[in-house]
Amino acid sequence: MIETPDSLPARMFLLAYDLRKQKMTMHGSQLGYVLRAAALTELYLDGRLGGDDRRPAPGTPGDDPYGMLAQISGSRPRTWRYWIRKDSRPFVATVREELRRGGWIRVTRYRAFGLFPRERVTVKDPRVVKALWGGASSALRGRPVAHVNSYDAAAVALAAAGEMRSVLPGRDRRRHRRRIAELTARSGPAAPAVRKLISAERAAAAG
């Protein structure tokens, strides 16, 4: 059995990697939204975070690997969208460094056109991405929703909300809309908040 990262943000980062093209398919804020939502979803699934569909609230005390619980506890009530948007770009670097230190990826620095500093991510063992993709694919098409692994269900919910084409191309999101909705309902309020955040930003840019 192939070992995969324990954290949901790390898993979602690896799922954004295209094995065929050997590069990341998402970058910047949109990837950051998915990763932040993954961290919030992990806390929610473990009972460390509660709240309703509008706002998260501290739940059962426990580990706080990314410091989100401390932020939420020390703040006035704010929406899920606020916490997903907050520090989204730096959060990508945080998760990337977590994976680099764990030996899951290699990060190479270079200059685009000889001028602009860039970083290239390479997954060291493609079987890890394949295993994660297999779990998400099984969640989408396999056993009854109630029996699906909670992280696999969340991976599908977050990938659909964040329009992560490496996991769910648009045609699959449309074809499996009902199943995605059921998996999303199991995974908590963060994934729907990502979808609404991206839709709102897209509408604002179009207007």
Automatic annotation (TrEMBL):
Cross-referenced InterPro entries: GPP34-like, GPP34-like_sf
Assigned keywords, A-Z: Golgi apparatus, Lipid-binding, Membrane
Pfam family, one: GPP34
Keyword flag Membrane: yes
Transmembrane intervals: none
Membrane topology recorded in Swiss-Prot or TrEMBL: Peripheral membrane protein
Subcellular location field: Golgi apparatus membrane
UniProt key word Ribosomal protein: no
Name of this chain's protein: GPP34 family phosphoprotein
Native source organism of the sequence: Actinomadura graeca
